[in-house]
Amino acid sequence: MSKTRTSRRKGRPKLRLFLKIALILVTSALICVSAYAVYLTKQAESAANNAYETLSDREKSDKREVKVEPLEDNVSVLFIGIDDSEQRGQGAENSRSDALILATLNNKAKTVKLLSIPRDSYVYVPYVGYKDKITHAHAYGGSLATIETVEELLDIPIDYYVRMNFNAFIEIVDALDGIEAEVPYSLHEKDEFDRNTVNLQPGLQTLNGREALALARTRKQDNDLERGKRQQEIMKAIVSKAASASALLKYDDVLEAVGDNMKTDMTFKEMKSLLSYFASGMPRMDSVNIEGYDDMSTGTYYYKFDEESLEEATQILHSHLGLETEDSVQGVGAPYATESIDKVENDTFSKTR
Q: Which residues make Cβ contacts (< 8 Å) with residue 129, sequence separation at least 6?
């Protein structure tokens, strides 16, 4: 009995020592995590401040009575990928838009809809007062001209925009250690230097930045509509990777990658508000597309929208933003109830899948 008590007494100091060491290690880890979180916040704020720009005479969309609050309202964000890089040196405001993706975010459901607008879409450009390819809007009047064109096309407010060039896209994907994407066919495409050096084989695979850019840009073997679908899938892959736990230690690299290659009218506070969409993991992201057809009747190639498909896509986005009224759908003046919005959105979306 005495031997047992003695062995217990001898064992207790060892247990206490182990618990102390464990407590020190856990405390140290928490301090490191907290310090890193503070560091990332400072890095993010610095990057956001560097990327922030205001568009002249535009505090909000003319289609909004008051400026939206991301934590309270449904919002829209237009992503503008410009046809420029450090090597091309065309200048951000003089470049054409190479990719346009509109994201609408529903605050209550925490869902996202993505619409790609083909670069050769034949649309009315308010900045010049006539119809042209939507890619030219940015060359005519920069981000503001592009925003006004999209608002005119879809009759919805554009609350925020994010503009980035090839370099920002490549560096963000590389900072995340690549993204997983489906390559639909054998691909021999240009890189960011306009050299045909990117070669990919079909199948699901991890792509680095220059490979992802080539996949997003190519349209040699299909058309603008399929190109837009690929861009949506690539954006989903980037968001999914950025939202994963494995990306936590890479955020400083991602923030550094943004550098001078991205501009936005979102403040750091507004960016943080949008993180609520990831509070419960990856949000549901649905693709929306506008069917159309190729047109060479004038000797110049245009992508012309099918009016019925355009109307369906517009209705989906209006519903998702909560902009629809019964007057426009049911002939009654009262605003939609939330369940009516969801029903129209789901019924219409099912036609586009």
A: none
Q: Are 131 and 138 in contact (CB under 8 A)?
A: no
Give every CB contact of residue 152 below 8 A, 6+ residues apart in sequence: 123, 124, 126
For residue 50 the two structure tokens come to 């560097």
Question: What's the CA gap between 127 and 129, in Å, rounded?
Answer: 6
Q: What is the pLDDT of residues 180-217, one digit of tens each?
A: 999 999 999 888 888 889 999 999 999 999 999 999 98
Q: How far apart are CA 107 and CA 326, in angstroms?
A: 21
3-state secondary structure of 194: coil
Which of helix, strand or coil describes residue 268?
A: helix
Q: Are 214 and 190 in contact (CB under 8 A)?
A: yes
Say which DSSP state 185 is in. S
Residues 6+ apart with CB under 8 A from 251: 40, 43, 44
Q: Which domains does the chain have, with CATH numbers?
A: 52-295 (3.40.630.190)
- Beta-ladder partners of 303: 121, 294
Residue-level length of the chain: 353
Task: Convert the pLDDT of each residue in 278-322 to its tens digit.
Answer: 777 788 999 999 999 999 999 999 999 999 999 999 999 999 999
Nearest Cα to 350, choosing from 302, 304, 293, 286? 286
CB 98 within 8 A of CB 217: yes
H or E stretch at 141: helix 135-154
